[in-house]
């Protein structure tokens, strides 16, 4: 049996020597089996294996356990003693890959379409695999994401992508899984106030109240869904309607409806709306979801929390409520996940999860929030989200606690078994100017 013993330092040497390259190419398919030994392995479902091993070949996990690894002919063996192995983090509901420069460069922003009702708009085909932001995100262990369109009442449909690809076709991990809707609210004008997002149905006259405007929007949504449901029941429509065709998956269960809603009232309204059409619902935001946790649990409606590192919505709220919200939903038996805001800040996803540790969640529960839980909500838990035999080898090795911004040290990462390049523009600039001033670069 031929076994090649490799150290993490040796494996990283090639990357260090080529850091000056402007372009970071996607990795080639896994060519031989890899065995990681001696690590503390975090499964993602709450279990931890000390002094463990994990083996994967042809992109799939083939063995995992404690103690000595099985002999695998021709495998590369990575000694990860004293290091941590984690499932790849999953970031739902993000504009990663759709936005490159947020302000002042409209040509780099492709997150929104004109109009208010756009269920047929596919964010996947706008996903930019050459974004310089993506490598900075996966350098912190985020390996999969859900690029999501914004604006209007119904902004479009989203897919799950893996973050190491030549083009959007290669990146697609699970296509067209959800349609996104912002629930009409009379609570104000911005996301923080629970109102409409950019492009939503506007006020048509000076006498129109916020309540009338919200009702007008709700009527438009209800009418669209009623027509789409009727369309979905026609076996062979004589005329193709792209909007209705895109919504068909909502009624046959192949797609979920992701609803942006923060207020307790709006969340309950969304639950009742989804029930009336027989639709699977996911609440995004859910700042007051803890107030209606019973309704969420009884109707099997999960919540994707937008962020923990923020301030409370209302002056009367507990100042620590954003930190406590994951634990409140955990105790209430509600399935919950976590995302961040904007696009580049998704690199802070593990630290947003870590913020909830110390406010009720254990470290493994916080890890599950951005791995197993997010995978369940996105409908990809059969292939990823936890480190189990038969699942895709989406994982990474860290020199420290990956939920702690001080000790995280992602040294190796694999997507479907492919050894991905962890360099990025930020690291290149750091090394460039460290050299200028005679400093010893640490990256």
From TrEMBL:
<dbReference type="Pfam" id="PF01979">
    <property type="entry name" value="Amidohydro_1"/>
</dbReference>
<protein>
    <submittedName>
        <fullName>Amidohydrolase family protein</fullName>
    </submittedName>
</protein>
<dbReference type="InterPro" id="IPR011059">
    <property type="entry name" value="Metal-dep_hydrolase_composite"/>
</dbReference>
<dbReference type="InterPro" id="IPR006680">
    <property type="entry name" value="Amidohydro-rel"/>
</dbReference>
<feature type="domain" description="Amidohydrolase-related">
    <location>
        <begin position="358"/>
        <end position="401"/>
    </location>
</feature>
<dbReference type="InterPro" id="IPR032466">
    <property type="entry name" value="Metal_Hydrolase"/>
</dbReference>
<feature type="signal peptide">
    <location>
        <begin position="1"/>
        <end position="22"/>
    </location>
</feature>
<dbReference type="InterPro" id="IPR051781">
    <property type="entry name" value="Metallo-dep_Hydrolase"/>
</dbReference>
<keyword id="KW-0732">Signal</keyword>
